[in-house]
Design goal:
The complex is a heterodimer.
Chain A: E1 10-19, E2 26-36, E3 41-45, H1 52-59, E4 67-72, E5 75-76, H2 82-92, E6 93-96, H3 108-119, H4 123-136, H5 152-165, E7 170-174, H6 182-199, E8 202-206, H7 210-213, E9 218-223, E10 226-232
Parallel strand pairs in A: 3-8, 3-9, 6-7, 7-8
Antiparallel strand pairs in A: 1-2, 1-4, 4-5, 9-10
Helix pairs in contact in A: 3-4, 3-5, 4-5
Chain B: H1 2-15, H2 17-56, E1 59-64, H3 68-71, H4 83-92, E2 96-111, E3 114-123, H5 126-130, E4 135-138, H6 143-148, E5 152-155, H7 157-164, E6 173-176, E7 179-187, E8 202-206, H8 207-215, E9 222-227, H9 233-247, E10 258-262, H10 263-302, H11 304-316, H12 321-357, H13 366-392, H14 396-400
Classes of the chains: A alpha/beta, B alpha+beta.
């Protein structure tokens, strides 16, 4: 094992992900190598079907690569079984989806509490933490509302609160502003940017809007399952 | 963690109230109908058995001809009995407590403006004893009336009510065909028989009167005998057959030209019929159990997409496969238990009400209750749990994107 200081938080080596078989086979990721250090804010851009979402799902252990090696914090993820992957997600990863993916007919507070239940925290403690997370998103007054009673921006902030509630190392955001207008998008991006800068949270975000990618420090441009360009954004420069 | 799982399951039930309520309804209908049907079926079987016992479990009927139960004793080809047949039989068989000859005919009984078509039975006082009839008002026949064939009669409760309403008609005269007949007694009601026929709908007169004035012949179409206490009806049946063959001069090798029926056999036969009925009801109930099950299946399958996405979300935020499975299993068990419990209460309630309305005994069957509950529970768990298991084994991203 190499020195802990030297190893990146996320390391993809020769990762491929294919769907289907034979003639209809689609190569969503094509021998991708990628290192992401702790504290980075990475935006992944690219045309539709370029594999940017697949890359994020592999990083988030929501999907399993067909071949290649993936190390998270030095641990080889490919060796883990489903339950161990679940534990990795539980303790180190937080997700923000384009479609929010909140539980219906369930209060904002309870949605945020959910990851803490699986972390095994007792009721009072997790209530507290969930409330704190909502407060940070400026939503404490909406804690007892169902997602259907919240605006899109509010729902996405609940989703961010849920992703943050478990104090993850990495937040993975898949088109987090895809369903929001410009003003709300900027609001969400500023929240993410602030989390990255003030708390050193590592963020990997998929987007197809250059405006949103500009909030990140590093930009990956993907085409046909490969990383074509890897550069710092103007923000970082 | 178990308590946490139960809490998660309860929250899921509350969140999907309509779905949960429909599932419970399916189970309630399935379990409830089976229990109600079987309870009522078994109650009526027991009632039939009790009724036949009341009819006289030590009673035998002897009819002319073979296969009397199928063809009926009234066929003209059969050689009828006479009063002498009865008296010989009774005299030769000390195991018989009593034996009564019966002649039966249908006729209209008329009183004033009222008339009522009924069975006219010619017999003697032994009949009251054998068939266990009790006098309500008046008296039975006296020797003089019997020997002389006087125009007197004892009437059943239905005839009394049809012709006289609330009046006790002792001393009144009714007309049957050309015969004017004085009422000397009324019988206590026995009510409807197990077959549903009215046992109280008949007029009894001395058999000589019946022969001369109503039937116009001396035929006896039925003998009714009761055996002494401690004598089995099976043995009586055998002895009666032997004596009757002698009386009727049937040579060896020839078939009997009469039938001896044991009321116990009739009881067995009737229990058989109600057994079939219970089976039929149970089959209907089983169908409703199945329909309830299909209802549950539908609801569960319709909600698979939503549930699959929910499972995707839970997996994404760090739930392990078995934690998700436990939650869904517990949810299915809670719904099934709850539905089963309501179903049992509901089914027993309907069964009790049915028993009350039909005035039959309330006979709940533990095995049926258990089977019904087990079946519904299994349906609930299978269709609640297996789609969830499939979803929980997917890659989280596939579950999240499920459409």
């Amino acid at each position: 094992m190499s020195d802990a200081q030297a190893r990146p938080l996320i390391r993809l080596r020769d990762i491929s992900r294919t769907y289907g078989a034979g003639e209809a086979q689609v190569r969503a990721l094509d021998h991708v190598d990628l290192d992401i250090e702790e504290g980075e804010f990475v935006a992944i851009m690219g045309p539709s079907g370029s594999g940017k979402s697949t890359a994020m799902n592999v990083i988030g252990c929501l999907d399993v690569p067909t071949s290649g090696e993936y190390f998270f914090s030095g641990v080889e993820v490919d060796d883990l079984n489903n339950d161990q992957r679940a534990l990795l997600r539980r303790h180190y990863l937080g997700f923000v989806f384009q479609g929010y993916n909140l539980l219906h007919r369930t209060s904002a507070l309870h949605n945020v509490e959910l990851p803490l239940i699986y972390k095994g925290l007792d009721r009072v403690e997790r209530r507290d933490m969930a409330m704190q997370a909502l407060k940070r998103m400026g939503l404490e007054h909406r804690a007892h509302h169902d997602p259907s009673e919240l605006s899109g921006g509010q729902q996405q902030r609940v989703a961010i609160a849920r992703a943050l509630a478990g104090s993850p190392k990495v937040v993975l955001a898949d088109e987090p502003t895809g369903n929001l207008d410009t003003k709300l998008s900027a609001e969400i991006m500023e929240i993410l940017q602030d989390l990255n800068e003030s708390e050193g949270l590592t963020i990997v975000m998929v987007t197809h809007e250059a405006d949103m990618a500009a909030y990140a420090k590093r930009l990956l441009w993907m085409v046909d399952g490969r990383i074509e360009r890897d550069s710092l954004t103007r923000e970082a420069a | 963690m178990l308590w946490e799982t139960i809490r998660l399951a309860i929250e899921a039930i509350q969140r999907n109230f309509l779905r949960s309520a429909l599932t419970i309804l399916g189970i309630v209908i399935g379990v409830g109908s089976v229990i109600a049907m079987v309870t009522i079926g078994q109650g009526s079987t027991q009632q039939v058995t009790a009724d036949v016992q009341k009819l006289g479990s030590n009673m035998l009927m002897i009819m002319p001809g073979q296969d009397a139960m199928e063809g009926g004793p009234s066929g003209t080809v059969d050689k009828m009995f006479t009063i002498r047949t009865n008296n010989l039989l009774e005299a030769q068989l000390p195991i018989l407590d009593a034996s009564a000859p019966l002649g039966v005919s249908r006729a209209r009984a008329v009183f004033g403006n009222e008339n009522h078509r009924t069975d006219i039975v010619g017999t003697d006082n032994r009949y009251f004893r054998v068939a266990q009839w009790e006098i309500d008002y008046g008296r039975i026949f006296d020797i003089g009336e019997l020997n002389a064939g006087k125009p007197v009669c004892v009437i059943g409760e239905t005839v009394r009510e049809e012709l006289f309403g609330n009046v006790i008609p002792i001393g009144e005269t009714i007309r049957i065909k050309a015969l004017s007949c004085e009422i000397i007694g009324t019988l206590k009601s026995k009510g409807a028989s197990t077959f549903g026929s009215d046992q109280d709908d008949f007029v009894i007169m001395p058999i000589r009167t019946f022969h001369r004035r109503v039937a116009g012949n001396t035929d006896v179409s039925l003998l009714i005998a009761s055996v002494r206490d401690g004598v089995s009806t099976e043995r009586a049946q055998e002895e009666i057959t032997l004596v009757m063959r002698d009386i009727r001069r049937i040579s060896r090798g020839e078939e009997d030209d009469f039938t001896v029926l044991d009321m116990k056999q009739i009881a067995t036969m009737l229990s058989g019929i109600t057994g079939i009925l219970t089976g039929l009801l149970s089959a209907v109930a089983a169908v409703s159990l199945l329909v309830g099950g299909i209802g549950i299946m539908n609801i569960m399958l319709v909600s698979v997409t939503e549930r699959t996405r929910e499972i995707g979300i839970r997996l994404a935020i760090g739930a392990q496969t078995r934690q998700v499975l436990m939650q869904f299993l517990v949810e299915a068990i809670i719904l099934s238990l709850f539905g089963g419990l309501i179903g049992v209460v509901f089914g027993l309630g309907i069964g009790w009400l049915g028993a009350y309305v039909l005035s039959i005994p309330f006979q709940p069957d533990v095995v049926t209750v258990l089977i019904a509950c087990a079946f519904s529970g299994a349906v609930g768990v299978i269709f609640g749990f297996f789609p969830a298991r499939r979803a929980a084994r997917m890659n989280p991203i596939d579950a999240l994107r499920h459409e």
